[in-house]
Amino acid sequence: xxxxxxxxxxxxxxxxxxxxxxxxxxxxxxxxxxxxxxxxxxxxxxxxxxxxxxxxxxxxxxxxxxxxxxxxxxxxxxxxxxxxxxx
Length: 87
Known about the structure:
Elements: H1 11-24, H2 28-41, H3 45-54, H4 63-82
Helix pairs in contact: 1-2
C-alpha cells in the first residue's frame, strides 16, 4: 500500500470526518479510503454523459407537445363523459 497525505484541510472538516468515521465504527483512514473507493467506482460525469449520448433513446421528444396532446385527450374524454351536459 501507498501513503496519501491531504494538505490544507480545515480543522472543522477533519473533525466532522472523524465524527462520521466514529459513527460508522471505523477510523479516519478507513473512512477516507472508503470514500475514495466509492467515488472512483462510479463513472465521472463526463464518462456518464458520453455513454448516455452515445445511446440515444428513440426520436427527440417535445414535452410541450406531449402535454398539449394529453390535455386535448383529457378534454375530449370529459366532453364524451358529460354527453348532453357539456358546455
